[in-house]
Amino acid sequence: MKIVIADAMEPEVISEIKKLGETQVSPADLPSALKDAEVLVVRSATKVTEELLTHAPKLRIVARAGVGLDNVDAEACARRKIKVMNTPGASSNSVAELALGMMFAFSRRIPRADSGMKAKKWLKKELTGTELMDKTLGLVGFGRIGTMLAMKAKALGMRVIYYDTHHAESIIAKGVDLDELLASSDFISLHVPLLPSTQNMINAAAISKMKKNAFIINTARGGLIDEEALADALSQGRIAGAALDVYSHEPYIGPLCGLENIILTPHIAGSTKEAQVRIGQELVQKLIEELK
Ligand code: NAD
What is the pLDDT of residues 146-198, one digit of tens each? Predict the structure, then answer.
């Protein structure tokens, strides 16, 4: 069986996949490498289009090493009876940990303290923080990542509420409607997919319902927050702060970069050693099950 790994990947992922068969990594000419391939493994760079598939008559599986299938034309694959798979759970804990890290960074003002020290400024008097204990965390989306973050927040003594269109009752968090979540949360963290129903769900109207001390975090998908409305709210002090890992257009270099009360990271929520190892393991496990 021939496997083509089209995109750059961590050595951990490649060595797991190599256990399954003859593997060609990052071929210079992808269409011709696909001529006799049965499995195509991609990350984000390769767009799996109908046109690309015409070069792959023997292809049985398209495997995306990561969450989401934004770069794979799943319908074109279905028409050709090509199975599509991904690794949706591999980075959940890493994302939940980054969201929690954002909460600590904001409440203890770590970015400001750090940049002050590096500028040789002792800002002790200006940097009184707040604790997370007894604060309310509102989770928009209570799937894999939302649930993991809820468990960590509970361990810190936070109250956790969530809004999710599908999730059943939970013993660790209370389900509420979106308006109640926006109005009563000190921290709001987004963990929903980007869909027509979630696009710009955090817009000026939603922000106007939040508490003045609210801190909003998006480690899910760019497009969930109206970035212009967020920039307005932050510069006018209508909410206390925000943290973003994902943006409507990436790499992001927009006006949010110039604000004080925001923490920005370049889409790194899933980028940990552990998540990479899990991606490789999860992918290989799924491939073994599919190919047996
Ligand atoms: P999941 O599918 O396990 O959970 C998503 C939840 O959102 C589900 O429970 C679903 O019922 C709920 N939902 C869907 N539409 C909704 C709506 N309109 N209103 C309220 N709830 C709704 O997904 P997950 O694995 O927890 O991932 C959450 C998000 O994080 C996804 O967007 C994913 O792409 C993103 N993510 C980002 C990174 C990163 O590197 N920044 C890494 C992994 C995942």
Answer: 999 999 999 999 999 999 999 778 999 999 999 999 999 999 999 999 999 99
Which amino acid is it at 285?
Q
Cα of 109 vs its chain's centroid, Å? 23
Catalytic residue positions? Answer: 221, 250, 267
Closest Cα to atom 28 of ligand 1: 191
In this structure, the answer to whether residues 49 and 177 fall within a common structural domain is no
Q: With a 6 A CB cut-off, is 142 part of the ligand 1 pocket?
A: yes
> Does the beta carbon of 193 sit less than 6 angstroms from any atom of ligand 1?
yes
| Domain co-membership, 286 together with 247 | no
pLDDT in tens, 198-257: 999 999 999 999 999 999 999 999 999 999 999 999 999 999 999 999 999 999 999 999
The pLDDT score that the predictor gives to residue 169 is 85
Residue with tokens 């975090």: 217
Query: How far apart are the CA of 167 and the centre of ligand 1, in A?
Result: 12
Nearest atom, ligand 1, residue 221 CA: 32
| Distance in Å, CA 94 to ligand 1 centroid | 14
Task: Check whether residue 115 and residue 252 sit in a common domain.
Answer: yes
256/158 same-domain check:
yes
* pTM across the whole model: 0.92
| Contact partners, residue 70, CB within 8 Å, separation at least 6 | 44
How buried is residue 169: exposed, middle or buried, by Cβ count under 10 Å (0-12/13-18/19+)?
A: exposed
Whether ligand 1 lies within 6 angstroms of the CB of 64 is answered as no
Tally of CB atoms within 10 A around 249: 10
Residue 141 CA, closest ligand 1 atom number: 7
pLDDT at residue number 101: 98
